[in-house]
Write a structure and sequence with these properties.
This protein has 691 residues and is of the alpha/beta class. The protein contains 16 helices and 31 strands. Helices cover 31% and strands 27% of the residues. α4 crosses α5, α10 packs across α12 and α12 crosses α13. It is globular.
Length: 691
């Protein structure tokens, strides 16, 4: 049997076919079809089957990563959604955190809630902060309000958000039952079911976004499922979540908010895998595709996670300017810089690149699909880094003249400089933007890049990785085989997993071991039930427990690992607190705020490697020379090598361009690349030294 992975990005859709018996993989990359993403999915599957000589009946599983949810929230393409809210709390979504993300901007703007005030209805009910019932739920008001929203306002989804439901969700559950009985076609999300955390603004925003995209995700999954069935696919269709775990269709439809960073999460986990295989504990995962660049940190062999991210930021780099989503997610920094990012001269007379992207339609000017604005891909083609005839292995020709014309008109002309210099300005502007964002991300997490390596991937990543690493003083860059489709490869290594969390404030000195065990036991039953739906149960399920703890009275928490008993929690918190705040200790009692539990199944391909035997055939790697611009030497005749012909142990001294079908590596003067035993290209970066 075989498995297929499909990762849909803003510009390209990456596809991988794997033989489960041998681990042999077949790779394919094609333009995304924005009008109907399933067109690219079906075309990619067909190309893989033909290339691999496999019948659709031999495919046991198709795993899928998508940016659908993120795009729908940013572009506001979700469904009309209503909201039932505790009486007196209708304006919580507008009040927000009452915090300015920029103290000096007098024209400060915030993203609008996905549910406008006119679609919110107040319901009489009240749960106390300790979970005790106060005012009873007004059942008649619930049904009447829901009917009014459906019949009078035409909503397709409903979010039920009651105060303090994280402590006791009885009223939310009862309201959901009443609505489903009265209006069985209406999709309903409750805030405590989506993510039962304290702080109602974040919890309610998350629930409303979950409801807002639920009809869209339902239709999307059903559409792809139907089209796959139409070509004879009878296997399992699974979806990747933002925390790096696989879930069934049913779970994805129930919690679509967990798909926010679906594809990129797989790439970060794949980076951690390469670090583990190569004996690298700490690394930066750098993914640059056609639309965005993503950076994730791997510390002690594990990708860092968090439980909140922002969507639809008004200002791209300013925390607090977006809508907060409470969901487990790989901790990533995302920058609007990719191959399709559009370059322009701003009002200061400076070259700016992104966040606007040409996407797949019309795409960069050099794609010849109607695009006229200059992009990063156009600049890299003009600089000589890409070959117009061998892009995507020669399957997609590029128009060099169109790239030059676009850069001349929008950048070189307005600045009064030559085309080549403008192209280098575009390329270097992206390098500086990415490096700057990564520095901030690392400093906020006390991560020292100088003691790490970089794993670079994505269609555009290898062309920029070495120079960005030099700016960050990262001494080594690792480019795995199949780097251009590495997120799709990561989908094939991702286990089934599901994470549950809840807020329950408990002082550590009053914690009873039995109560501690029962709190986690209830969460474990929930998580195991989700995995059981995928056929994973018993000893195949691994359980990991974590707690958010703080000194009593503090506003924010630190995460610590938790065992089967509360023994050692005080010491673990002390170590975590000391790591962040040096030697500071407070003579205050400790309290647990949030309880977290993750259940995961066996890792696919555990202990096994992908095989690229069909592609990598050692031989004469030199393809010729190409004139390329390098800042140290200007336009230079640079050797061009075929990555598939490089032998294990081969050493390439820069400058050089190393091509594979899905991506191109550029190394400069003084950089050295070596092929290791795992077929990785390992680049020692000139001037960057570990410290």
């Amino acid at each position: 049997m075989h498995r297929i992975a499909v990762d849909i990005g803003g510009t390209f859709t990456d596809c991988v076919l794997m033989d489960e018996a041998t681990g042999a993989v077949t790779l394919h990359k094609l333009l995304t079809t924005p009008d109907d993403p399933s067109d690219a999915v079906l075309a990619g599957v067909d190309a893989l089957l033909r290339a691999g000589g496999v019948d659709i009946a031999d495919i046991s599983t198709l795993v899928h990563g998508t940016t659908l949810v993120t795009n729908a929230l940013i572009e506001r393409k979700g469904s009309r959604t209503g909201m039932l809210v505790t009486a007196g709390m209708r304006d919580i979504l507008d009040i927000g955190r009452e915090r300015r993300y920029d103290l000096f901007d007098l024209r400060l703007a915030y993203p609008q809630p996905v549910v406008p005030r006119s679609l919110r209805r107040e319901i009489g009910e009240r749960i106390g902060f300790d979970g005790t019932r106060g005012e009873a739920l007004d059942a008649k008001a619930v049904v009447a309000a829901a009917r009014d929203l459906v019949e009078g306002e035409g909503i397709e989804a409903l979010a039920i958000c009651f105060l303090n439901s994280y402590a006791n969700d009885a009223h939310e559950q009862e309201a959901a039952r009443l609505v489903r009985e009265a209006l069985p076609d209406l999709l309903v999300s409750t805030s405590a079911e989506v993510f039962p955390y304290v702080r109602e603004y974040e919890r309610w925003t998350t629930a409303t976004m979950n409801a807002y995209v639920q009809p869209l995700v339902n239709r999307y999954i059903a559409h792809i499922d139907e089209r796959l069935a139409g070509i004879g696919f009878g296997g399992q269709f699974y979806i990747m979540t933002s925390s790096g775990g696989m879930v069934t269709q049913a779970t994805a439809r129930r919690f679509p908010i967990r798909l926010l960073e679906s594809g990129p999460a797989a790439g970060a986990l794949m980076s951690a895998h390469h670090g583990k295989v190569g004996g690298i504990d700490n690394l930066l995962s750098f993914d640059m595709g056609g639309t965005t660049a993503k950076g994730a940190l791997v510390r002690d062999g594990r990708a860092l996670r968090k439980y909140e991210l922002e969507v639809a930021r008004v200002h791209e780099f300013k925390a607090g300017s977006g809508l907060p989503a409470k969901a487990p997610v790989i901790d990533m920094i995302e920058i609007g810089a990719g191959g399709g990012s559009i370059a322009a001269v701003d009002e200061r007379g400076v070259i700016g690149v992104g966040p606007r992207s040409a996407g797949a339609k019309p795409g960069p000017a050099c794609y010849g699909r109607g695009g006229t604005e200059p992009t990063l891909t156009d600049a890299n083609l003009v600089l000589g880094y890409y070959d117009a005839a061998s892009f995507l292995g020669g399957k997609m020709g590029l128009d060099l003249a169109a790239a030059r014309a676009a850069i001349d008109k929008r950048v070189a002309g307005p600045l009064g400089i030559e085309t080549l210099r403008a192209a280098w300005g575009i390329h270097e502007a992206v390098n500086e933007s990415v490096a700057s964002a990564f520095r901030i991300h690392a400093s906020e997490r006390a991560f020292d890049y100088r003691r790490s390596s970089m794993v670079a991937f994505g269609g555009s990543g290898p062309a920029h990785a070495v120079r960005i690493a030099g700016k960050l003083n990262v001494p080594r860059v690792v480019l795995p085989p199949g780097a251009g489709v590495m997120s799709a490869l990561g989908l094939l290594r991702s286990p089934f997993s599901f994470e549950v969390a809840r807020s329950q404030r408990t002082r550590l000195d009053t914690l009873d071991p039995a109560a501690y065990a029962e709190a986690f036991a209830a969460m474990e039953r929930n998580a195991r039930g989700i995995l059981a739906d995928a056929g994973i149960s018993g000893k195949d399920v691994a359980i990991e427990r974590r707690l958010d703890m703080r000194y009593e009275g503090q506003g924010y928490e630190l995460e610590v690992a938790a065992g089967a008993t509360p023994d050692g929690l005080a010491e673990a918190f002390g170590d975590a607190y000391g790591a962040v705040f040096s030697s500071i200790r407070l003579d205050e009692p400790l309290e647990i705020v949030n309880w977290k539990l993750e259940a995961s199944g066996p890792e696919p391909m555990a202990g096994r490697a992908f095989r690229f035997d069909r592609d990598f055939v050692p031989g004469s790697a030199l393809k010729g020379e190409r004139a390329a611009y390098l800042p140290e030497s200007g336009v230079t005749a640079v050797p061009v090598l075929d990555r598939y012909r490089l032998r294990v142990g081969a050493v390439v001294e820069g400058p050089a361009i190393i091509e594979e079908r899905e991506s191109t590596l550029v190394i400069g003067h003084g950089d050295t690349a070596t092929i290791d035993q795992h077929l990785n290209l390992v680049v020692d970066v000139r001037g960057a030294t570990a410290s």
